[in-house]
């Protein structure tokens, strides 16, 4: 049985926010907001969907990746600062953040954007309707449970699982774990609320995201296990985007110059409170 929970609209009712870069910040500034800036402004120009700005779609909340529950409240975070750095290298003076449904995003049902950064696993199925960047982060699937919950390979079948709609985690539960009940949620906020309120016994999503949920639970949620997927996160582009080459170059350059490693250390390691590599793996 699957139950769809949540009220995020797919198209229309999008939530937007913007930050100005060059208008108030000198070109040689080392920071924009809380984000440290690297590279050279204008080194990789693009053809933006809206002149003068980088339009970035994501799905909130996403603690540590996007620190702020709404686009207007955004301060920093791995992917937010990644977007700010990309706008800077593109020579643009504004970043517009648009909060959309994840399910709609990976199904190519959103429009009028340049790039999406939303912890999106690269899959062949998704490649049929959208394009992806070179990978920027490795992704496995973590299991979040309330502290004291017994989670083993033997108890999985009798548990109520919560997953986020349209994700690889949702497919993994259906195809590999096959528990007695699966509930599908619209975002990580309602997913974690369902776990805290005992609507589900376990939440399954990317390990990085589940660690963020656990950190924000004041010790009530833990991530005892994870499953290997061999997948990676990539930036998502509209199919046939003219900016794919420029964006891919930016991402590769940020790997080489240490920008992405710095973002991971600053925003992910501290926020998670755990090293993903130390979380035990289970076989499905």
From TrEMBL:
<keyword id="KW-0732">Signal</keyword>
<dbReference type="InterPro" id="IPR001638">
    <property type="entry name" value="Solute-binding_3/MltF_N"/>
</dbReference>
<feature type="domain" description="Solute-binding protein family 3/N-terminal">
    <location>
        <begin position="59"/>
        <end position="271"/>
    </location>
</feature>
<protein>
    <submittedName>
        <fullName>Polar amino acid transport system substrate-binding protein</fullName>
    </submittedName>
</protein>
<dbReference type="Pfam" id="PF00497">
    <property type="entry name" value="SBP_bac_3"/>
</dbReference>
<dbReference type="GO" id="GO:0042597">
    <property type="term" value="C:periplasmic space"/>
</dbReference>
């Amino acid at each position: 049985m699957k139950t769809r929970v949540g009220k995020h609209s797919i198209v229309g009712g999008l939530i937007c926010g913007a930050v100005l870069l060059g208008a108030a910040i000198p070109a040689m500034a080392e920071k924009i907001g809380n984000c440290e800036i690297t590279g050279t402004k204008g080194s990789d120009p693009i053809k933006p969907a809206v002149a003068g700005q980088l339009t970035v779609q994501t799905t909130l909340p996403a603690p540590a990746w996007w620190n702020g529950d709404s686009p207007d409240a955004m301060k920093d975070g791995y992917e937010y600062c990644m977007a700010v750095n990309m706008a800077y290298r593109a020579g643009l003076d504004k970043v517009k953040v648009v909060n959309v449904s994840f399910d709609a995003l990976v199904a190519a049902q959103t429009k009028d954007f340049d790039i999406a950064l939303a912890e999106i696993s690269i899959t062949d199925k998704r490649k049929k309707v959208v394009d992806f960047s070179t990978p920027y982060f490795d992704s496995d699937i973590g299991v979040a449970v309330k502290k004291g919950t017994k989670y083993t390979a033997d108890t999985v079948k009798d548990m109520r699982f919560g997953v986020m709609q349209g994700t690889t985690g949702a497919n993994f539960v259906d195809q590999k774990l096959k528990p007695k009940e699966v509930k599908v949620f619209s975002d990580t906020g309602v997913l974690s609320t369902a776990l805290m309120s005992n609507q589900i016994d376990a939440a399954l999503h990317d390990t990085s995201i589940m660690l963020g949920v656990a950190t924000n639970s004041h010790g009530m949620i833990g991530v005892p296990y994870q499953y290997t997927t061999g997948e990676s996160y990539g930036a998502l582009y509209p199919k046939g985007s003219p900016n794919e080459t420029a964006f891919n170059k930016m991402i590769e350059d940020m790997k080489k110059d240490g920008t992405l490693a710095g973002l991971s250390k600053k925003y992910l390691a501290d926020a998670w409170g755990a090293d993903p590599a130390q979380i035990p793996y289970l076989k499905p």
